[in-house]
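User: Predict Mg2+ chelatase family protein's structure from this.
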Amino acid sequence: MGFARTCSVALVGVEGVVVEVQADLEPGVAAFTLVGLPDKSLTESRDRVRAAIVNSQAEWPQKKITVGLSPASVPKGGSGFDLAVAAALLAAAERIDPTAIADLVLIGELGLDGRVRPVRGILPAVLAAADAGYHQVVVPEQTAGEAALVPGVSVLGVRTLRQLIAILTDEPVPQEPPHEDGRPDPMLAGLLLPGAGAGTGLAAGPAGQPADTLPDLADVAGQHTARRALEIAAAGGHHLFLTGPPGAGKTMLAERLPGILPPLTRQESLEATAVHSVAGILPPGEPLVRHAPYCAPHHSATMQSLVGGGNGLPRPGAVSLAHRGVLFLDESPEFSAKALDALRQPLESGHVIVARAAGVVRLPARFLLVLAANPCPCGRHTLHGTGCECPSAVIRRYQARLSGPLLDRVDLRVEARPVTRSDLLGHGPRGEPSSTVAARVREARDRAATRLADTPWTVNSAIPGHALRTRFPAAPGALAAVEHDLERGLLTARGLDRVLRVAWTVADLAGHDRPTADDLALALELRTGIARGIPATQGEWT
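Assistant:
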């Protein structure tokens, strides 16, 4: 009788659970039993592992084989357990030393020829192994860079099962032929899930461009008020609602928001990379998401595609793919009411909890929401002399598709007016480029980070209302207009807190120690849409 054990990782959402893979060999009729709540793809690993071991010039044990995956109560799926199952079997058959793999975490799919194929979710799997106290992991060679992002973990990237056997037995490591440049690599197919990235724009930018080729804010003609609101949104992490006729530049503005956001911190990069890796949209050769993701789903998206779902355990949706970045909902009234209202909880908490019969999954969802909408179905309601024929009841019904509770969670509401001839033809002043605006955004965020150094928050939009009112008061007398609007019913209690957060961001951009009356007036104007006599010229923060 032979016994051996090693470890692998089961992913539940974007969180990993270390699984002990045990192999037991007993005399009897040759059979292979896999227990421990495996799904269909994991059950099929019996055939993959057997073919891989035989084709790697190792002897297949003709005994009664039982492989157990513990804890048995955790659902397990995917092909990432193949490498651990094969190693445990070989150790139980004494082909390799059982003690050599007892403290290893092995992740990877096996091809029938013994090649180790990459799988999705390597980063969160290695993070889970590190948190559990493991310091050595074995992963496919193509994903070694992604696994190496986790500090304190020794990563071994292998190309074939033969290489792993040789390394564990101190034999000469066979040299496998490298992949030929210029030919498609079928081994990378496991990293990208077809269709999973549709409409997401990936992590680099609105069309998957590198960060240094993102659309420039200088391309937007006019729209000084909307540009200022975009800058405030980027500086404080505030949600934005753009309304206006077709062709005013709402989509252009939203696509340029990632270009003025600060680069992600190391922790934020790891969080975003983990989600993209699990979703199967992490570009090969780019193991780390360094810039704010941008996700723009079509208005036909279902609620499950927005917040997460799918068969079995839920998979990340658009709100998670936009984690630490921008979620842009163009033509937002055309989204289903259920899908839009499902955003309310993640907008407040920064995560989404999806419950299914197979289990409950907590997915990260701290994103910057940008909504865009036309004023009416034809889009010409606010234009003069263009012949909008939409009945008033139709207009009210169209605008009511965005519920009050959802809009109450949006800090900035701006009307994008039609572009004038002088702005469009370049006769007016040219707008600032993204680099100039991004520099001001970074300075404002640095001021906020310094002020919030002894707190768990880093941006103004994350400060709870009670702490905002008690620990960070505005200048004396600055709240008079806010209190007046609260008494008139123009602001809710949540709206009051959001106005204060925006005012602090305006103060950070202007270099003020505390929000002044003018800062509060601008925040109120951007919240309610009622003019407060504040100049809207972009760049005037003092």
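Confidence is low (pLDDT under 50) at residues 197-211.
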